[in-house]
Model the fold of this input.
Amino acid sequence: MTRNHRAIVTATLVFLLFIGVGGCWSAEELNNRAFVNTVLIDLTEDGQTELTVGVPLPNRMIPGQAGGTGQPQGDPFSFVTKRADNLSQALNLIQVDLPRDISFGQTRIIVVGRRQAEQGLDKVVEFVFRQPSFRLSASLFITPRNVKEITRSPMVFERILSDILRKYVNNHYTLDTTVKDYKLALYQGGDILIPLLNFGELPGVAMEDPKKNRWMGSGGAAIFSGGKMAKIELSPTEHRTALWISSQLKNTTITIASPSDEKEMSFFIEGIKTSIDPVVRGDQLSFRIKSSAKAFVETSLSYIDLKDPEVLQQLEEILNKKVEEEFIGVLDKTRQARSDAFIMSQYLDWRYPKIWHSMRDQWKNFYAKELPIEVDVEIQLNRTGGVYRSVVHETNR
Done:
């Protein structure tokens, strides 16, 4: 290496080091920004748009900053709400009241109320896509009633609301439906599933703080047809099945009645794999949903003999039949709602684009009333646990 080459390499390395310690790229200081992590959107009874932003409060998140010493007092976040004719106007009203500039760069959660969901999310998606800093990977949720009901939820396990909802998604408790997913679904007809939240009263918590008396949890799923929320919904159990069909379920538990004595048996299901494939035979189109998984006995109150290979095969057949029936039940609900919620049209477009384009205009009716769907589930019972017979019955002998 010549002297000139060494000089060029040295100058390049020094330049790269300066880049790494150069501080913020933006001309705006971090202390002048309000980083929104949760957005709540709904319609009021008089048709106005209600926008709520959830913003962390840095002065309450660091010990010693709120009162000088000790732990910070009060919630480490705040919600700001404004109503206007549209989302842009509501955002402007919120910005006027805040001492910091709003930034959507850290927004991970968008929660929409039922009234807005039934009208459709087109305006919501349009608003998000126009914000350069907004992440299209932000997850969508629907509330069964007014969206602001979520602000009454006490923060027990996490300090910030968005952290709870993100863990619902990351732990595969709810469907991961993003803004991008919804936008893509609109191109295929606006059919998709979006997770629902549920709320329950907590009298004990209300005694301590009347404003925080609503326990929040993952619920069922809203079925969208043509970009609008349908009247038909999936229950929490059906939501779990939808996760399974969508290949988003990591593990679950299935309880059945023992074939020998009708006693309860529970199985832990893991290693779930599901595929959705179009099948074309001549001029006939159908779909095959095939799923495989592994299972082991989690609990058993039955006298059944788990050493018998025929018994194990019988249990596998019962598990397969139960899951297949659940698959068909969820698919039937989407058909009733006239919603290709699992976006089978995309699979058809990918595999057989000519067939898809020839029946695109009649796809909704075809899916709802005519499309044959074959469900094939194969669960292997690999482990029976540390004992072959129920411990309860063994100890009661």
Q: What stands out?
A: The CA atoms of residues 224 and 394 lie 51 Å apart. The chain has two domains: 28-234, 236-397. The two ends are 86 Å apart (CA to CA).
